[in-house]
What we know:
Layout: H1 6-23, E1 28-29, E2 45-46, E3 50-57, H2 62-76, E4 79-86, E5 95-97, H3 100-107, H4 121-139
Parallel strand pairs: 3-4
Antiparallel strand pairs: 1-2, 4-5
Amino acid sequence: MIAINSNKKGNHFENVWANWLKDNGIKAYKDSASGAGIREKADVGNNLNIHFEVKAVAGINLKKVWAKAEYECEKTHNQPVIAIHFNGFPEDKFLMVMDNYYFLELLSGGKIIPEMDSKNKWKVSRLVEAAKEVLKIYNA
Length: 140
């Protein structure tokens, strides 16, 4: 097997992940600014309010990667989710990592109310913004 530059490998699998999302009906994109832009820090942008951190690795310090994703979510106000492609996986297979509260929210169809703490303030802010948009539609 030929060695590949880790940046090229990372970019390749960010593109694979973005394409997989698109192939499954989700608006997603990977461009040269992802990961470095002011507004969008996620590896793969999307319309799901999810901050995807994509890693293609043999092994991973999950606690460190999770801390980075949570830190970046303070800026984007999105939910952190890590997509990990381990060496030896089929090209389009990823292991997904998310916190248990978000997992429960997905299972319940968003019907849970998160505890109001500093980590969840952005969720309330996002909800308020969404409510304002709905009011604009009905008042138009």
